[in-house]
User: Fold these one by one.
Assistant:
Number 1:
Amino acid sequence: PYGEFAFNKQIITNSYSFFGREQNTSLKVQGPNSILEEEFQGADATIKIADYVLFPTMEDLLREVVPFVQFQKKGSKQNIRMSYRYERSVKIYGDDPLYIIDGFMSRDTPFFLSIKPEILLAIKIINNPNKLGLLGKLGENGIIFVESKKGNLFSTAGNNLFPIAGLSKAVNFYAIDYLKPNKNERVPDLRANLYWTPALIVGKTGSTDITCFASDDTGPIIIRVEGLTKEGIPFQAEKTIDVKYNSTR
């Protein structure tokens, strides 16, 4: 928690008094977004609100000051989109970037637009695709950091629930059917994993049959089964079998 982090920083600051008053005892006070900003490899652009004319609304501030952030309005719906400029092209991200508001993550665009610029210290953005790509779904539409003067906007922030589909796309299990013609049949098959299924259902008989081809790597292989009973109790079982060379194939 941020409160614990600030407390520990104060302990470190106080410990400098051991060396006397001539010692530089000042440590830079970190804002509520600092930890996440550092974790995400730093901001690509920083806007200090005090350096500009005070705008009455967030919409005005975005249009006039904040780079690579576009406000759009389609009927009653308000959208925020970020972009990144290459030498000869521009990358446009999807709607609703990730907002980090005083340490609070959200995709609530209406709440972000309702914030008054007069209560803010700074707005920072991350729009570099190389940084965002490492964050998967979190960074797919860019990131906007918002830091207020009091650092407590998170207490009034909107819904911070948003779906995370996963960092990697699902892939099909690679299997070979040797009953079908295969132009690479003479290439050795040395797969380490021969069969995998996440949804094998055993019927009322309590048993089921599965079939797979062994690889050309002879020797012991492990069959591992994990699952749930009808009562929801997890179980696991393993058995080792030997794969031998078939000289009559």
Number 2:
Amino acid sequence: MEIPHEVRNWARNVFASCNANVTHRFTMQPNVPEEQLDHALIDQLNQYSCPTRLTNGWCARIECHFIGRLRHYLQWEIADIGLLVSVKQNGRSLFKKAGVLQSKRLYPHNRRVIESTQIEYEIGMARLDDPELDSVSLFELVDFEFNDGCRYEAIKQESDQIHAIDSYMSNQSIPVYYQLYNPPSLPLAVRLPLCERPQVDPNPQTGIRILRATDVHLQVSALSRSPSVSDFVASDQWRLENFVADELLACREGHRYERRDDPSIQNLFYRRNGPISAAVAISLEAPPGVSVLQ
């Protein structure tokens, strides 16, 4: 079916705003953990949880659910965020689609990134009162630098996670995509402590990019290191908002399904130990009496 331009443009604007605000974290906290970027994206999307009536009469809503599970603690995950698209009219389902996003952030070339480790999960909130932090002055000058040679350090050749994703895609019909978190622009230099609060760039040049996992793994297999921004220049990639509006909603990417008991959908969204930690549902409804192309 064909989803109207007005509906797709609404989705594009929503995810573009999320892209800008989440990407802004790199200028505010350049060593932010990857998980916090996922949480920031979910928080931004939660603003659209109430139905919105669009100019062409359609209604739209985005609902988010953070699942969380033991894989954060002990196991590799297949993806971080599951995307569901549902279109209906007069109480009848017309179209359903799904895809999953595996998030990875870009690392600065001269500094480490805060990472969630098993010991930090065991310590829990007591980590906020870590005696080691008392010895580090807040006045200490720290520089972070990003350029197109910086790497997505958590993507590693022949890693358990890559093998797990490849195995999942060979057995399930739902495609996996990498959601690459990048600074608003490259190159970027940030010095801490901040002297003033940076402004959000509403149209970041770089920002969140989506790539097929098959393309990423093919590129990584030819490297002896983690991939950099420049390694993906020739790969198909989309800004987050364009992926959702022009690929997922336009039926070019993702897995279309007809029934909730589709085995791939059951494994992804209806099991507590499924391969994702958060779900985002984009619900669209056509007004009565409007012809919707199938």
